[in-house]
Design goal:
This protein is of the alpha+beta class and about 700 residues long. The protein is built from 23 helices and 22 strands. The chain has five domains: about 130 residues, HPT domain (Four Helix Bundle (Hemerythrin (Met), subunit A)), CATH 1.20.120.160; about 140 residues, no CATH class; about 60 residues; about 180 residues, Heat Shock Protein 90, CATH 3.30.565; about 160 residues, Beta Barrel (OB fold (Dihydrolipoamide Acetyltransferase, E2P)).
Length: about 700
């Protein structure tokens, strides 16, 4: 059975996500019955799977939660905020239990017992719905009868789930005297019969002093896979069953499952195609395919370059060479299509990240006594699975920051003329070859004076130093800087925003914040769609070729001496329109010989990393192309200023620049100069 464990865990975690999301969507006091049914079905599936695989602790705990949901579903208990909160705790407990089982860890027995006690206490109280309004339900749920009239019709696909009506008949026969009538009105002709489908229904008369709970338990595993009606024997059944001769349970069930070699292949094939709409594949297999496709891209580029250089002595291609070049062009197109198709395998909608936020907002807003409305946009926007997994923690930090520092309490909002409920908006969209994630709130915004005072107190900013609004906003990402007035488990230690920038930077992305005091703040994250492919600009530095990510390039210009400024022993500056940016000599940073010290008419690539601009001096601009990223850390070791390497069409290795890392290396090698226009010393420091 262990070979099925991983699939069970994956499906169970998906079921828990569904439970959590639907619980958050429940309208307390006026809940949608279909939403409750969805939650119940997820819990029921987890309980059933746990029992099947011998995970008794999970099955027993889930059964208690399921019982509470069943009472809500039957209308004998109203949905209250207290019950929703306890059920959310139950989801957390089930997730922790399944995680411990999947990873071979230990379960938190105290936490499990504590939440189970809360569930049982809720179940011990009387249901708040008016049970008297449904006398029939009361009779069915709470009283014994002289017997029961059961209408049972399995859905067509029930046999495929491994559930057998024969065993249910045996179980009923153990409770009392049983009589059955089979309804074969929907049984197809022999030629059209699929042996894996169920076409027979039953009307079952069960006599004896039997509790309704015992009868329901027989059908517990299939109630979502059949039409079932149970009435006291004295009450008429609403379901009409064809008047066919009684058949014994054994023979009735056998008729539904007996293989038919004459069953047509066409009908069976159609059903199989529907069931095979998706498959689960290990991520290691996908990574292996992506790596092989990357090698194919490199090989194709090599062949394309060699093919382009082959021609006759007179410079004209022969017929054979023309055919070769046509074939190489076709190979290039096919390779690109294969590459794009394989990359899409790893692409998932960002809703997988956004789905974590509603629960976080629900719990944290309650803890902070704030009212928050969450709005999500662009949930279908796709990005690479690896990027998605690593952006989860930064998103949690940003949401916590917005709820704690941004959105005010209802009293504060009303006092400032706002609605008492704040709005937190998550939006995702594609922009060029990147994905942009925006998190905005309509709260108080960033208190720039408080941030600046805190930065001065921590020695990050000089007492007389003046900073622009953007530079002040950027300070919140500095390690150890927090404006929280009190230390709590939500904020106050100054580590959250530092982690945000660090994690996003490790993904080759950037984050910036825009804020209007009193109106709110917007955090904008820009990330590459995938970590395997990069759109880059090839540049020449000395005898080496480097790749500069296109997403980091603002423009490329020729240096004019009139715009150069510098101070002896300090870094050089270039006046680009209305701002000064530091000049980074790539030769110097990477320890290469430069043929000339003069910057006049040299090529400069203006780049931006972590919101800071700089101009990198290079010898030549080469082609722009997509490159397959190879990890330096995996194949060699981590190198400052480099994010990876790639293999070019001619077989040579080109290093990929990490722009933020290059700027940081430059800052350690040079002391920021005083602004030559005498407007203060901070401009160059901000640029660097």
């Amino acid at each position: 059975m262990q070979q099925f464990h991983q699939t069970f865990f994956e499906e169970s975690f998906e079921g828990l996500d569904i439970m959590e999301n639907e619980l958050l969507n429940l309208d307390v006091g006026n809940a949608d019955s279909e939403v409750i049914n969805t939650i119940f079905r997820s819990a029921h599936s987890i309980k059933g799977g746990s029992g099947t695989f011998g995970f008794t602790a999970v099955a027993e705990f889930t059964h208690v939660a399921e019982t509470l949901l069943d009472e809500m579903r039957d209308g004998i208990r109203q949905v209250t905020q207290e019950s929703v909160d306890v059920l959310l705790k139950s989801v957390d407990v089930m997730r922790a239990m399944l995680t411990a089982l999947s990873e071979g860890g230990e379960m938190d027995a105290d936490n499990i017992a504590s939440v189970q006690m809360e569930l049982e206490q809720l179940l011990g109280t009387e249901g708040t719905a008016a049970a008297s309004a449904n006398t029939e339900s009361d009779n069915n749920s709470n009283e014994n009868a002289d017997g029961w009239l059961i209408s049972f019709r399995p859905h067509v696909e029930m046999l495929r789930t491994g559930n057998d009506p024969v065993r249910m008949m045996y179980a009923l026969a153990e409770l009392g005297e049983i009589e059955t009538k089979a309804d074969i009105s929907e049984l197809p002709s022999f030629a059209d019969l699929d042996p894996e489908d169920s076409f027979i229904g039953w009307e079952i008369t069960l006599k004896g002093d039997i509790k309704i709970e015992d009868v329901k338990e027989v059908f517990d595993w299939v109630e979502d896979e059949c039409d079932l009606d149970i009435q006291p024997l004295s009450a008429p059944s609403e379901t009409t069953i064809s008047d066919t001769p009684p058949v014994v349970a054994e023979s009735s069930a056998a008729a539904a499952v007996t293989p038919s070699p004459a069953a047509p292949a066409k009908a069976s094939t159609a059903k199989k195609n529907t069931e095979s709409a998706s498959i689960r594949v290990g991520i290691d297999k996908v990574d292996e395919i992506i790596n092989l496709v990357g090698e194919l891209v490199i090989t194709q580029a090599m062949l394309g370059q060699v093919g382009g250089e082959i021609c006759n002595d007179d410079g004209h291609s022969s017929t054979q060479m023309e055919k070769l070049l046509e074939g190489l062009a076709q190979l290039e197109r096919n390779t690109r299509e294969i590459q794009e198709s394989v990359m899409r395998i790893r692409m998932l909608p960002i809703s997988f990240v956004f789905s974590r936020v509603p629960r976080l907002v629900h719990d944290l807003s309650g803890k902070l006594n704030k009212k928050v409305n969450l709005v999500t946009l662009g949930e279908g926007t796709e990005l690479d699975k690896t990027v998605m997994e690593k952006i989860g923690d930064p998103m949690v930090h940003l949401v916590r920051n917005a709820l704690d520092h941004g959105i005010e309490t209802p009293e504060q909002r009303v006092a400032s003329g706002k609605e008492e409920t704040g709005t937190l908006t998550l939006n995702a969209y594609h922009k060029g070859g990147n994905i942009v994630i925006e998190l905005s709130d309509d709260g108080a915004g960033i208190n720039k004076e408080r941030v600046l005072n805190k930065a001065r107190k921590n020695g990050l900013v000089g007492e007389n130093e003046n900073l622009s609004d953007d530079a002040i906003n950027d300070l919140i990402f500095h390690p150890g800087l927090s404006t929280a007035e009190t230390l709590s488990d939500v904020s106050g230690r100054g580590v959250g925003m530092d982690v945000v920038r660090k994690n996003i930077k490790s993904l080759g992305g950037s984050v910036r914040v825009d804020s209007v005091e009193g109106e709110g703040a917007t955090f904008t994250i820009q990330l590459p769609l995938t970590l395997a492919i990069l759109d880059g600009q090839l540049v020449k530095v000395a005898n080496e070729t480097f790749v500069v990510p296109l997403v980091s390039i603002i423009e490329s210009i020729q240096v004019k001496s009139a715009n150069l400024s510098g101070i002896a022993g300090k870094a050089e500056l270039y006046k680009l329109r209305d701002e000064y940016i530091p000049i980074i000599r790539a030769h110097s940073v990477f320890g290469m010989n430069d043929s000339t010290e003069s910057l006049e008419d040299r090529l400069m690539v203006v780049v931006e990393g972590d919101g800071k601009k700089a101009g990198i001096i290079v010898d030549d601009l080469l082609a722009q192309q997509q490159v397959v990223i190879k990890s330096l850390e995996t194949n060699y070791q981590r190198v400052d200023g480099l994010s990876g390497a790639t293999i070019l069409g001619d077989g040579t290795v080109a290093l990929i620049l990490d722009i933020s890392g290059v700027i940081d290396m430059f800052k350690t090698l040079n002391t920021p100069p005083v602004n030559p226009d005498g407007e203060g010393s901070n401009i160059a420091e901000q640029a660097a």
